[in-house]
Amino acid sequence: MSRVAWIGLGNIGKALCENLARYGPISTPVTAWNRTHSAAEELAARVENIDAVASLTDAVNSSDIICVCLSDDAAVDAVFSSIIGQASVAGKLFVDLSTIHPDTASAQAERLQRLGAEYVGSPIFGGVPLAKARQVTLVLAGSSHAISKFRPFTTGVTCGQLICLSDKPCANAFMLKLLGNFIRFSAIATLAEADAFSEVVGLPPEALEQFVRVVLQGAAVGQLQGLRSGEYHKADKPSVPIALWNKESSHLVDIASKSGARLDVLSTVAGQGDRVKESYGPAASLLTIFGLIREQCGLPFEA
């Protein structure tokens, strides 16, 4: 039976680690490490089958599968540099659930593979509520052999659905994550503009809502309801801060520039995200784009 370590206990990482400990096919406790050790201690005190360790080296050396879920590229690079410099990685599997630039993932995979370790890219689609409910979607990219080792810890344990890119470069998973979130944010920005403009021209609110419900269906219904609920200005702590989109859009802009591709919609929504950050700060809700668009249409910020 594999021994598992979890590195990184942000909001989503904490939820997934807890689910792994509660529902995973493991016979030994999950070893949890976080840069702020108290977060690991608090989780271990609350959840059975989790052991908190203060040493990153101890977490890696005592485990066969190491799940990494960190905030950004710099954190991922720093943690893997520390692991490679201090721990024995040969024969181990590293599963990276962070949202990072595909180039960052490729670099970590190459470093680990040279030392006899395996690396699977596994970014997450879905927020904290879905993570707690084991309903996020994981994207897996890497060798089929490595993916097969991690599969028992996925559907029904840490996630609800899988997108498997077996025997594809790990960078593909992170590219899909960036593109997927680009599509989602673009859809939110489009709905925000449509709703604000419909108010300007006097279209009844229920008209647009009926169109979205009947024609677009699916996620668009919840997105429009989320905008109209006022969450973006009522919530004390946003579920998704705009800084996350700013990070991801900058990665996409970099990739598009290097590949020579022109992406006009990306340029537009990346600029909208930058303006939200400039006006309301990096901790503002991603949905603050709605308030910004309302102001651009001559409407009050609050819906």
UniProtKB/TrEMBL annotation:
Family annotation (SUPFAM superfamilies): 6-phosphogluconate dehydrogenase C-terminal domain-like, NAD(P)-binding Rossmann-fold domains
UniProt cross-references to Gene3D superfamilies, sorted A to Z: N-(1-d-carboxylethyl)-l-norvaline Dehydrogenase, domain 2 (1.10.1040.10), NAD(P)-binding Rossmann-like Domain (3.40.50.720)
This protein's UniProt keywords: Oxidoreductase
InterPro entries linked to this entry: 6-PGluconate_DH-like_C_sf, 6PGD_dom2, 6PGDH_NADP-bd, HIBADH-related, HIBADH-related_NP60_sf, NAD(P)-bd_dom_sf
Residue ranges constituting the 6-phosphogluconate dehydrogenase NADP-binding domain according to the UniProt record: 4-153
Keyword Oxidoreductase: yes
Keyword Oxidoreductase recorded: yes
Any one Pfam family match given in the protein's UniProt record, by short name: NAD_binding_2
PANTHER family (alphabetical): 6-PHOSPHOGLUCONATE DEHYDROGENASE NADP-BINDING DOMAIN-CONTAINING PROTEIN-RELATED (PTHR43580:SF8), OXIDOREDUCTASE GLYR1-RELATED (PTHR43580)
Protein family membership: Belongs to the HIBADH-related family. NP60 subfamily.
UniProt-recorded name of the protein: 6-phosphogluconate dehydrogenase NADP-binding domain-containing protein
